[in-house]
């Protein structure tokens, strides 16, 4: 017969849980406000009033944003940068990390030392800008992709994961006639799917949220990413609250347009995350312990 013992909560536990609940609610409030304002009908919108739920639901702000060329161009730019950048980042990161796991590769220690060196030291904004300028990549989406292909932390974690794979599998593949490239694509990559899924999420979120590099490297407004466009709508737009005319000839409050743009910028990542979340912790932890 088994007995289930329950821990008696102390005064500290009650205080701790209460504080955590208050902090959690405080973190949720901004999201509730953004969603509520974005769906509020312009006829009943009152500035600076908090809404749990819209008094009257409307998609006017979303219809207006999705009908503008600036948002469509920004969405295309962000999808291009995120899609191409994520694929190239995964390819570069896993091939480079795989090379660093091979002790017989000449210059392996030098490469690994260079990666670790960049954990502490960074070239900075100006050298990176001059590099993009010399490569004729300014005002190009490729400047956003190539400047963030990989990073030292990702390489070290991926290397740790690849080190944990049984070397006997590679030896067996080579006995069967596989080349080094064949071993990588047919053995290593299929076994690395949990780690790949985790880093797809890392890189995709990073590229989707690209803001500073886009602000520095892109001068043409038609090539802006979503984050730069949202910043322009939220910060640079008229603070007087003057709205825009929607498709139904109503004047839309500027605040509803801003909040709707923020929601549209967040939704794609929020939709993708649940599909990769189950691989997230497993993929990262496999790279942290060799065994």
Brief descriptors of the model:
291 residues, mainly alpha, MetI-like fold, two-stranded antiparallel ribbon, 2 strands, disordered C terminus
What composes the largest sheet?
Answer: 2 strands, antiparallel
* Uncertain stretches: 238-242, 287-291
What is the share of helical residues?
55-70%
Structural class: mainly alpha
User: Regarding quaternary structure, how should these chains be classified?
Assistant: single chain
CATH level-3 fold name: MetI-like fold
Estimate the mean pLDDT confidence.
Answer: 82
- Strand content is under 5%
CATH architecture: Orthogonal Bundle
User: End-to-end distance, in Å?
Assistant: 38 Å
CATH superfamily: MetI-like
Total number of distinct structural domains: 1
* Shape descriptor: globular
What does this structure look like?
The protein is an all-alpha fold and 291 residues long. It has one domain (62-291): MetI-like fold (Orthogonal Bundle). The protein contains 13 helices and two strands; from the N terminus they run ααααααααααααββα. The protein has helices at 11-38, 60-66, 69-100, 108-120, 125-134, 141-146, 152-163, 167-175, 180-191, 193-208, 212-217, 226-236, 254-286, and strands spanning 244-245, 251-252. The protein has a two-stranded antiparallel ribbon. The protein is globular, with a radius of gyration of 25 Å. Mean pLDDT is 82; it is low at 238-242 and 287-291.
List the SSEs and their pairings.
Elements (H helix, E strand, L loop, with lengths): L10 H28 L21 H7 L2 H32 L7 H13 L4 H10 L6 H6 L5 H12 L3 H9 L4 H12 L1 H16 L3 H6 L8 H11 L7 E2 L5 E2 L1 H33 L5
Antiparallel strand pairs: 1-2
Helix pairs in contact: 1-13, 2-13, 3-7, 3-10, 3-12, 4-7, 7-13, 8-9, 10-13, 12-13
């Amino acid at each position: 017969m088994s007995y289930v013992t329950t821990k008696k909560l102390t005064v500290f536990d009650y205080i701790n849980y209460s504080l955590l609940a208050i902090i959690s609610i405080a973190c949720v409030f901004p999201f509730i406000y953004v969603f509520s304002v974005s769906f509020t009908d312009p006829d009943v919108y009152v500035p600076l009033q908090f809404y749990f739920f819209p008094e009257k639901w409307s998609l006017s702000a979303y219809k207006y944003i999705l009908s503008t060329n600036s948002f469509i161009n920004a969405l295309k730019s962000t999808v291009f940068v995120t899609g191409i950048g994520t694929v190239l980042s995964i390819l570069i990161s896993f091939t480079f990390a795989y090379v660093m796991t091979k002790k017989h590769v000449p210059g392996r220690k030098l490469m690994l030392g260079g990666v670790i060196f960049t954990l502490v030291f960074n070239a900075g904004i100006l050298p990176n800008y001059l590099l993009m300028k010399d490569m004729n990549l300014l005002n190009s989406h490729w400047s956003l992709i190539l400047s963030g292909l990989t990073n030292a932390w990702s390489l070290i974690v991926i290397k740790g994961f690849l080190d944990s794979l049984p070397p006997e599998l590679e030896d067996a593949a080579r006995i069967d006639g596989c080349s080094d490239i064949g071993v990588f694509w047919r053995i290593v990559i299929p076994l690395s799917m949990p780690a790949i899924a985790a880093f797809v999420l890392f890189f995709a979120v990073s590229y989707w949220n690209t803001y500073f590099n886009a602000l520095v490297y892109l001068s043409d407004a038609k090539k802006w990413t979503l984050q730069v466009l949202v910043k322009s709508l939220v910060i640079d737009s008229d603070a007087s609250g003057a709205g825009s005319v929607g498709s139904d000839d109503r004047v839309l409050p500027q605040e509803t347009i801003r909040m709707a743009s923020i929601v549209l910028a967040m939704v794609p990542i929020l939709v993708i995350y649940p599909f990769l979340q189950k691989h997230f912790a497993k993929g990262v932890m496999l790279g942290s312990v060799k065994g």
